[in-house]
Design goal:
By secondary structure, this protein is of the alpha+beta class. It folds into two domains: about 110 residues, Aminotransferase class 4, branched-chain amino acid transferase, N-terminal domain (D-amino Acid Aminotransferase, Chain A, domain 1, 2-Layer Sandwich), CATH 3.30.470.10; about 160 residues, D-amino Acid Aminotransferase, subunit A, domain 2 (D-amino Acid Aminotransferase, Chain A, domain 2). It contains eight helices and 15 strands. The strands form two sheets. Strands 7, 8, 9, 10, 11, 12, 13, 14 and 15 form a nine-stranded mixed beta sheet that branches. A six-stranded antiparallel beta sheet has the order 2-1-6-5-3-4. Helix 6 packs across helix 8. Bound molecules: 4'-deoxy-4'-aminopyridoxal-5'-phosphate. 4'-deoxy-4'-aminopyridoxal-5'-phosphate (PMP) binds next to helix 6 and strand 13.
Length: about 280
């Protein structure tokens, strides 16, 4: 089946899916997005993703030109039209075309875009053996400048941190917040296990509250694992028994080295494996 890209209710081939160069999404990163997974032809936690999209929109005063039910139906239709049983969805809402000035109120046509595609973020081998991370010197955006809770089209902060990771030979990088506490990675949330307790930084640490993060917290609670959303330092990660990342694209991936230090015994730990298995079962439900 050939790929069909949705723009404002119409479908285009990849070559013909175009928007204006005056769109403030391009000119200023003025817009928001979601990244979702398709498992067995169904969108995983679509409602949660759309509620987060609406929160991002509210935070930047961006009117989404369709209601929640309508967009839900359109996302499901885009999945059907692209015929992918397993895949990834990038849903974008831009501010729309305006003048060559910042003023968002002169943009009157927000663009709603749905791209359905395949994704492989990390090589399969890393899910078995674990990832190596470095801490980026680029910190997460100060929440008073641009809240990390908004999934905005301004990802340059994360792109710069990702670049630092890649230049150091790592596929992901850890980002601290403006207070020097652990926030998250460039596109994933971070967890540790210490003395059988599962810990992840709280929302206030300047993170995007991941849908996968929340699913993993629920699964851990169901399995009787003690969980906490607590501030973490880099030291806590160095001395953790286990560490892993979560994200719609990444799913659950173990971390075995941070800044050249082995975490635990340097291999993916048992609670990481247990939660990864539980997550795999959940998405197959
Ligand atoms: N943090 C950041 C910065 C992200 O971009 C993402 C999404 N790729 C996540 C965390 C994970 O969120 P989710 O589980 O909702 O995909």
């Amino acid at each position: 089946m050939t790929q069909q890209i949705y723009i404002n209710g119409e479908y285009f081939s990849k070559e013909d899916a175009k928007i204006s160069v005056y769109d403030h999404g391009l000119l200023y990163g003025d817009g928001i997005f979601e990244g979702m997974r398709i498992y067995g032809g169904k969108v995983f936690r679509l409602r949660e993703h759309l509620l987060r999209l609406w929160e991002s929109a509210a935070a930047i005063s961006l009117p989404i030109p369709l209601d929640l039910d309508h967009l839900t139906a359109d996302v499901n239709e885009a999945v059907r039209k692209n015929g992918l049983e397993e895949g990834y969805i990038r849903l974008i809402v831009t501010r729309g075309a305006g003048a060559l000035g910042l003023d968002p109120f002169r943009c009157s046509n927000p663009q709603v875009i749905i791209i359905v595609d395949k994704i492989t973020l990390y090589p399969a081998e890393l899910y078995e053996n674990g990832l190596e991370l470095v801490t980026a010197s680029t910190i997460r955006n100060h929440p008073a400048a641009l809240s990390p809770r908004i999934k905005s089209l301004n990802y340059l902060n994360n792109v710069l941190a990702k670049m630092e990771g890649l230049k150091a030979g790592c596929k992901e990088a850890l980002m601290l917040n403006h207070q020097g506490m652990v926030a998250e990675c460039t596109g994933d949330n971070v967890f540790i296990v210490k003395a059988n307790k599962l810990i992840t930084p709280p929302k206030e640490a300047g993170i995007l509250e991941g849908i996968t993060r929340n699913a993993v917290l629920e699964l851990a609670k169901k399995a009787g694992i003690e969980t906490a959303e607590e501030p973490l330092t880099r030291h806590d990660l160095y001395v953790a028994d286990e560490c892993f990342l979560t994200g719609s694209a990444a799913e659950v991936i173990p971390v075995v080295i941070l800044d050249g230090r082995s975490i635990g015994d340097g291999t993916p730990g048992p609670i990481t494996k247990q939660l990864n298995d539980a997550f795999r079962a959940l998405v197959r439900q």
